[in-house]
Amino acid sequence: MTDSTTRTTCPYCGVGCGVLVSRADSPLSSRADSPLYQRGAGGGFSDVRADASPGEIPPNPPLLKGGTRTSVDSPLSQRGAGGDLATDAPPPASQIPPNPPLLKGGTRFTVRGDPEHPANFGRLCSKGAALAETLSLEDRLLHPEIGGRQVTWDDALDTVAQRFQQVIAEHGPDAVAFYVSGQLLTEDYYVANKLMKGFIGSGNIDTNSRLCMSSAVVGHKRAFGSDTVPGCYEDLEIADLVTLVGSNTAWAHPVAYQRIAAAKQTRPGMKIVLIDPRRTATAEILQPGADLHLAIKPGSDAWLFNGLLNHLRRENGIDWSYLEQHVEGFGAALEEVGGLSIAKVAARCELAEVDVAEFYRLFTQTTKSVTVFSQGINQSSSGVDKVNSILNVHLATGRVGLPGASPFSITGQPNAMGGREVGGLANQLAAHMDIVPECIERVGRFWNAPNITHRPGLKAVDLFEAVRDGRVKAIWIMATNPAVSLPEADRAVAALKQCEFVVVSDNTRHTDTAQLAHVLLPAAAWGEKDGTVTNSERRISRQRAFLPLPGEAQPDWWIVNEVARRMGYAEAFAFDGPAAIFAEHAALSGFENGGSRDFDISALLAPPLANAPGGLGVTAGTGVFPLFQRGSEGDLATVTRAQALDKSPPAPLWERGEPVRYTQEMYDTLQPVQWPVTASGKGTPRLFGQGRYYTGNHKARLIARPPRGPATPVNATQPFIFNTGRVRDQWHTMSRSGKTARLLSHIAEPYIEMHPADIERAAVSPGGLARVRNGRGEMLARVVASAEQRIGSVFAPIHWNGQNSAKARVDALVYAVTDEISGQPEFKHAPAAVEPYAATWYGFVLAREHLACQAAEYWTRIRSKACWRHELAGAERDCLWPRQLRERFSSDGDWIELRDCAANRYRMALLRHGRIEVVAFFDRDFAALPPRHWLEGLFEKNSLNDAERAALLMGRPSRDVPDAGRIVCACFGVGENALKQAIALGANSVEALGIKLKAGSNCGSCIPELKKLLAPS
Predict the structure, then answer these.
(1) Rounded Cα–Cα distance for residues 517 and 734 (Å)
(2) Is 781 helix (H, G, I), strand (E, B) or coil?
(3) What pLDDT, in 10s, does the model give residues 953-976?
(4) What's 825's DSSP letter?
(5) Half-sphere exposure of residue 14: CA atoms within 13 angstroms, side-chain side
(6) How far apart are CA 679 and CA 647, in angstroms?
(7) Could you tell me the pTM of the whole model?
């Protein structure tokens, strides 16, 4: 790496892609002779040049004037070269342009995939490719606040510490709680978990990973004795059969999907089975006649896999020798599934018998089989049993931890795995230890924590219920947005509104949750954070900072550490940086381990460097703590399987009283490595290949459980199954991905997807608005017709929230029913009713600043390159927006207007000095409104010519005003109309479209849509 290039990781999904971030003047970014973004005539930015790396934005755009200058005498509060001190309060978001201009003397960055990182080998999805465009300070929380008033860090930290201490003194430690996030780095997680469980003395720290991965955790532990993902990404490429269960991999984990797609292209004989009620973009990988899509009845997965176990028994597909030597419980499990014939499974799952039989045949006859499962399995009231039904068939065939043969749980967040390692879930201790007497005593000694918790805490849904009923009186929420993401989200909002003390630490000012905080603490964002993350294949990677901390923002570990010190625990929280935290975390992983626990990275603390100058001493309590102890016989315990396979000697033990030292250089140069780490410092790609597990007798367990359907079935008044998930270019609640216009150009509004037959049944209209409601909440969304949606089901994406849309928080409709063991909610199945929204007018406004839209019953605010777009609708007789726009923008400038009151039709545009400022269209009929993309493009111009002015009034582009159409390829801004034109001119393949327009040639996420456009030709 050059001095101007930083090797880090992507902060989105759990694939954990490596990212190279380079200054614009570095060799890696000098792919052309001009900046990646060029100013348009209107001062905005033009499209990303087709031959350039995606994304380049200044790291610290200036704050607008109008606030009080900060009094902090620190480089953290200063601009770059030539700049003044930043203001201490950010301007209203409406005053910040969507794409901040390049600053004089500022540094620009480019982002590209790291070709050397083994998770992605240079690939990035559309979100990762656009990361540089999310680095602006727009909407950043830059200073601590109490009650909306800016305060010093000392005031804020003292307040948090004192209020928590007061609640603990009056009501006990279980009256306080932390709710944390898979967006935190491992070091942040570690400090928060240590404070709550070790020193406050409560188990009440849970994470939003509870909502996506906790069922997989419990399933792994029941089967393997540990929360271990046995395989690695390479298995996806070398398997002969890949089964994707409950995962729209093409959109949720695009780089993993591209690895599978590339392998299939190389080896056409490779088989793919997709098990999903919806025919998603992932289905485009399937080859007709060779691969299989099982459009399973929602919630019936366990019947399918239990039936597969029975089929394996009947067709001599079980590895009996493996079972006898390495597995227990198989007798009861086989008895449980004995009555599930192919016919019964097909009827229960509402599948054709021939398709069930083909899947069973493929799995039985294909030794190298990988089963990838994700939220469609986990997010269920019986998610743990579903996980174990998948693990059962792999154990029964001995296909665990072998090359190309393994079950594979793929995580949803960049550091969900790291959170599990440090005990981020309420029912865990650190280092994959449980809250049981032996582990409580061990971790308590290591931390020298006399107050260590002796019982699990409240899981996420129960935790917020305790906030609502007053049992939890103070809560600290870190890097997550539960007011949007929790089931029955309206109840979560009500809980936080009445809570005595709510602390939110985040890097974003305007979230639904931040609005409810008493104290706001400014946290570092991606690009400013320094630490480690662990991806879905157990690979630990360094996420490195390349930006200075803006304003007074601080890393999450520092914030928690400072509160801990103020609560009286300074000796245990003497961390001076993430390297020291990581060293303690690594040491705890090996403490009294000797191969008895799966998670062990202590070999990274190399003993030859024990006394190296400048080392970071790993200590606990008031002095040096023995990190490793010999057993009673003085011998090493059983070595890990990884050590046995590696043929390396076990890690040496340090003598009692000798500290392990870890240097900053070792941390800075840490290479991606999969745990457990062997004594030689090597990672472990696969586990359990030799059939030895982390149970008392080292045998895995088959789990006998009868299948169960969803907890809340549909009924006559709520006849539709409401299902939630992700879209291709957005992430969680859009606080990062929503900052870049091109990621909103593909899907801009909240929507529900329905089968045409259901659209007719519900009397709603494609493109119109519908109201979705049940006994828990309601939403308004655009209706999208799709014959690939299962009849009887409604799909809605999770990303929109109260900051960018009205009534679009989909989790308000999700029932707060959870798996009885894991506590994971059933996000994939809620009963709901769908009815038309009786709008009397529809419209949209494009403006250079975003407008307050709350007066409209339906509104969505969308970022474009050089303007903001506002989609609007209302049920009142008269649309008042034309008058309000006149009042808002006065009569200054050239107004172009056309009004037809009888039809509720209105068109207007405001130009000043030839430059368009505002354009608005309203009509009784939504379909009569013109396309938006060509109008948005006019805002990039410094002035409009006669043809463009005429096009404004007509509401449609002329030949002189091209319309690229809805964006399909976000990486290069290629629209649907441009693609159709290229296809008509002979570009009849994905490769040809890539050559002509570059569409699909970067991340590949749009390839499924390109194939759909090509299909008619």
Answers:
(1) 19
(2) strand
(3) 788 887 666 677 788 898 888 988
(4) B
(5) 29
(6) 10
(7) 0.88
